[in-house]
Amino acid sequence: MGIPSDLRNTWANKRKESLWIASPYEEAKMRRSKECTQEGVRAGAKAAAIACVASAIPTTLTAVRTIPWAKANLNYTAQALIISGASIAAYFITADKTILECARRNTHYEK
After folding, report:
1. Which domain of life does the protein's organism represent (predicted)?
2. Mean per-residue pLDDT for 69-94?
């Protein structure tokens, strides 16, 4: 079913047209916020990659092969969940801290 194409196109065109004209100050503020977000994504991706390697080596190469409890209870799915959980946590924590730090740096522009 879905939305009829005429109505969909009308809504799409209205979204493209901006009824609000931003001042140069507002445009600079929006640009700085986008830069902060991009910086946070980059830092989060780097942290996630490092956390992936840092959690994969002890989990798969050491614990599962040497510790009897881990050998008996941690299958491939559990190992993947441990590694991905560490990576996801590292991404979001680092991205959040980076975005907040960047926002603090940009507050002097608003005064």
Report:
1. Eukaryota
2. 94
